[in-house]
Amino acid sequence: MPGPRPWYSRITDRRPDAFGAEPTGARLARIEGSPNFVDGAFRNPVPTRRLIPGSFGPSLRAGLTKKGSKPAGAVPVHPLTPGELSVPPASGLRLTWMGHATVLAEIAGRRVLFDPVWGERCSPFAGFGPRRLHPTPLPLAELGPIDLVVVSHDHYDHLDMHAIRTLIHSGADFAVPLGVGAHLEHWGVPADRITELDWQESARVAGLTLTATPARHYCARGLRTGTHQLWASWVVAGAEHRLFHSGDTGYFPGFAEIGAAYGPFDATMMQVGAYSDFWPEVHMTPEEGVRAHGDLGAEAVLLPIHWATFDLAPHRWEEPIERTLAAAAAAGVTVATPRPGEPFEPAATPQVQPWWRPIAAVVPTPDPTAPSRTEPPRTDPQPEQVRV
Q1: Which DSSP state fits 83?
Q2: Distances (CA, A) of 66 to 50, 179, 315
Q3: pLDDT in tens, 284-342
Q4: Quick check: is 221 in a domain?
Q5: Is 282 a member of any domain?
Q6: Owning domain of residue 169
Q7: Closest CA to 173 of 83, 123, 110, 216
Q8: Buried-most residue among 47, 289, 322, 343 (CB within 10 A)?
Q9: pLDDT digits (tens, 9 = 90+) for 344-364
């Protein structure tokens, strides 16, 4: 007579749908054949630690005691309408930052949605986890036709199960890094609408050329860190315009190689928020985001992403954008600062709109390129590179 089943087996049976699924079959065989899959797991392009050793407890305490990490008032979301999006961009390229890492890009007559997250919380459980700090600019059902959905990795603040299930009905194709397609199939996306790419692989999808490029991060959807799901930055190219989306990444020298191989870019969407001294190798500081933009060789517009929408790190709410502007001014980089939901065309030189300052936790100086008064921008030293 068989004995009782182990505890982890019973938990697996109750695994929430939001956890997704593990790769099997031909998908698993392809993963195991990847040059980036070493000793049973995907590896970063340079040695990387998720957390600095000994920082788990201090990081939890910092999260519980932090102040100023939420806006002091309502975020002035642009009242986006379907009619506003129905007018084609005059330059052929338009970006609409929906908040956090979610961006609608209109390029070459196609509509590309990066890292779609519409949920109230970025969590697998209702009523638990980081809560949205501003409403979505437009309900997903009113966004209109989407040709392509591009996902950088499987963390909950970048991959929203409910958004994916809604987007199935749009008829869109989906592009994801290796292994992440298992989640999408588990949620009902037809396999023939999923393109999975390894780093440096390209594919022609929805009339655009997509390339998965390296990033310095990790995946995790269930109870443990993912080993069979890859993370990526993305290059999306049409006949006349090229875009770069960083996803989540720590700084590493590979940005220059990406720029040399796939640039020049008309705009970059760079992660500048959710950084910490506790995890300096998997998220860029604002200064590193500006540096990565420069490494890409882009005299393009930098759109700061991954800030303002979710409280995910100990820094003040407005700090990422203030430090980005200060670093960009020093480097001569043009930065776009739209409100969430406010479309703009990179071809038109964007003007700095400091919409966040009236609701900032700390009132900054009136100079749009200056940091906050109480804490000048710092350049974090590059941590020692030790592989886990």
Answers
A1: H
A2: 21, 35, 8
A3: 999 999 999 999 996 799 999 999 999 999 999 999 999 999 999 999 999 999 999 99
A4: yes
A5: yes
A6: 17-62+85-359
A7: 110
A8: 289
A9: 999 997 778 899 999 997 544
